[in-house]
Amino acid sequence: MPTSYPWTTAKKCRRKNYVASLEVSTHPLKMDNMRITPSLNKTLMESLQNWSMPFEELDPLLRFEKMNVAEESLPLDICEDEKENYLKVWNCKKTSILNKYTTGEKLTIISSFLPGGEKISTFSALIRQVSNLNEKVKHRLEQLDDFDEASVRKTMGLSQQEFVTKVHMLDEEIKKAWDSEQRVNAFKIAIQCSKLLSDISVMQFYPSKFILLSDVLNNFGSLVFDRLKNKSFGNKNIKFQDIDPSTVLEIAKETCQNWLFKMASIRELLPRVYMEIALLQCNVFISREEMKPTINRLTNMIRGMGNPLVAIYIRVYLCNISSKLFGKESEPYYKDNLSEFINEYQQIFHPTMLKKYGAQLLTADQYLNLYVPAVDWLLFGTLNWNHDQLNLLEELLKKCNEIENSELLLCCIISAFDSSSVIQKSSAILDIIRKNADGMVMMHQALSSLGEHLCHAESYRQVSAEVLSQTWWKLASGMKNTANFLQVLEPWIQFACIQLSSQHINVILRGTIRYLIKSGQPPDNYSMQIQNVVKRILKHIPDVEELFLMDAFMPLVELVQTSAARTSMARTVLTVFFERNKSERIDDPIVIASLMRLCRIVHDSINAVSVEDESKWSGELIVRCIQAARHEDLDTQLNFYVECRAAFLKLDAVLVALVHAVNTLSTRGAASRGRWLQRACAAYCYITVPSLQCALSRATLYLLSGQVALLNNCIGQAEANFKALVGVIPNIPQYVQEDGQKKPTHDRVAGLISNFLSTLLVLPDNVDSNSKAYILSGFIKTLERVEWRKIDTLYYTTLLRVLDLLCEMTQEQYAYHIDSVISNDELYGAEEEFVKCLENYATNVCQELLVVLKALSDAKETKKQYSLSLELFWRIIKRGDLQQSSMSGLASNLWMLSQKLQDSNAKYAKSILTVLQGGDPAGRQLLEKLKVQ
């Protein structure tokens, strides 16, 4: 090939062009359809959930929240034939109890089957000398019958986790002893576990300790039951309800009686009752009719327990075993045990118990809360038994009026009953609380539970709602504990939002601020509770924008002063506000000012150590605010954007949104007002874009801002943006960091440059410049400084696009125009000097493309070389003057090169030949020449 081919552009006649057409089987934009065959046993949604399950692992930090939600949504009614429902509900409660009742105190465990610990007793039976066979047999029988005969060791100073580990070890020891035929040892371990439940030295952990040890006793009872079942029925899979005592083998009955006799020989009341309850199901092998009287007897025996905390939990264990065996038939036992608890209620406040929890530095409400899980469970079964809940509620409220210190029972009653019943009796409940307010330590829990129920009221008479609101406010405002006050405020403010007017809500907020200020404690100590209160208001007030018009809302939001608390509060308010506010525009200046205040707090919290997700979330909230804010006057709107730019310089996402917003604003300016607004908007964008850190974002916005300025006939501003764009292109990196991943930029840069070159066609030259098409010439020079390899697709594709633009710019009439913009076809009128300058540029570009072809050959990039040769050949045919020997010669050489590099897919070459056959005479002449060669 010659070293240089002068480029000459053919002049086009504006007629229909002949274009190549390729036969295809599918449309390139058609989406692929995926056929999903749903399972016969599952719905489509269930199948999709199963597929996505591995990608949706629950955040470990959210599991406790899920547990609490499960606890709150426990059903109050269960189906007739469902013993398992009681078990499922109890398992949910167990999880919440274990999470709630924890301790940092040191615990003690006493057992003869765990290593370590301090030896506290040695029994002579183990060291007694035996001289003959009869004495040996007698000694072994005594060991079987005397369950206390062992070396007992006390392990003290255990942490909570160590205690749990020890209990699990005891459970494993029971299983090991049972599997090794040492069933008496297994029985001893179970007895020692039950004795541990008499220890209340760490009261606040007792509910969790009961859960752990009762599970061990359940496992032991199951082992005994399964052994008796195998003795009688072998390996048959028979359930408890299917066992007929008349069909039980005699050996099984004898073994069962032996276990019951051993249990009855336990001297201490607590372990004897626990073990009898654990082995209660074994009575079915002797007599099914005796089981329910046994439960009644055990219910009465528990009266002998001197410690009310121990007594209530053994009643829970009795009811659990009963529901496991009899399902709904066990519900009367719940009612009986609840009645027994109410009859013995005053034991809770016995001076001995007051001294014990006082010695452990527990407050009165902490002590009473230890009883709450047990009373709730007894009420759960009682409510399922008695379906006339309103009458039952009246009966229990009457007892609360009759007995002293009824707050524990009252709190459990309020939380246990359904909302409709509690709402009907809300006035009576408030009266009980008001009468006993002076001595109530759980008043905040009772008021909070009552408020949660009232939040479910669909409609409430306005007068009654105001009376209730006034009553609870008098009670709450008299509390000395700020945390308790905020706990009560949270549900009741929701009730006020649903039932009362905005004036009432504002009065409550004012009172809240006064209370928090007078309390003398920093509001930052209660920032999470205040945030929950604000979140409730935002979620349930009918008109969320009206909230910002209240004079007490923003002062409450800004009451917290620490940076972290203020930021968290601001994010919460903005997030919930935009979730609730469905309007696309906010035009109230007070609301806009309040939102902007919150946005500034969020923005100012961003610093060098902020994580990417935090910055992204903050940016999204601020962008939502900017996009929604609207001012009728365009000057005011632009000034608003200027203030935003000054306030939010740290976040690129916000600056990008501001540039887009200002470009949109410039298109709203009326022509009658002159072009000052469009020029001001263009200047705003030109000044703002350099603040962005990402070069690719800067280049994209420079292009967009220049196009908008050009559309508004602001030629000077458009040129400035395009010049800046040309200067940014060499700085665009090959990869950008997005969402924690490095993503290539080549495709995006290629689209950006193609869009830019298309815009340059309609951009008129600056008549004061000595250079023709000086923006384009500057871009061509810039390509020499870009760190792209010559064999990169992006590089030679860009050169081809430049060649296309140069050829189009030499035409007498361009393919498209912008109204009111005089492009170069009108400005120069195809002046010879202008055309010659462009053809010189085209010659240089063509020469560079030939250099690229040589580089591709040296790099063995055969496919790219074949593609580029055909692309350049096609442009010569469509845009070059084939009457010139240099053009036709270059075309011939390129065609021969492509034939030497023949690709497996020759459709493109065949399409080109088809076009040549139906093209102009010069094209047909070239075709003949190619065929000859």
Description:
This protein is mainly α. Helices cover 64% and strands 2% of the residues. The strands form two sheets. The protein has a three-stranded antiparallel β-sheet with strand order 1-3-2. It has a two-stranded antiparallel ribbon with strand order 4-5. It is elongated. The model is unreliable at 14-22, 31-82, 121-131, 136-141 and 143-150 (pLDDT under 50).
Would you summarize the structure shown here?
With 933 residues, the protein is mainly α.
Distance between the termini: 16 Å
Mean pLDDT: 84
Q: How many beta-strand runs? A: 5
pLDDT < 50 stretches: 14-22, 31-82, 121-131, 136-141, 143-150
Helix percent band: 55-70%
Global outline? elongated
Major sheet: 3 strands, antiparallel
Q: Tell me the strand percentage band.
A: under 5%
Measured on Cα atoms, how large is the radius of gyration? Answer: 43 Å
Q: Tell me the structural class.
A: mainly alpha
- As laid out across the biggest beta sheet, the strand order is 1-3-2
Put simply, the count of helices is 43
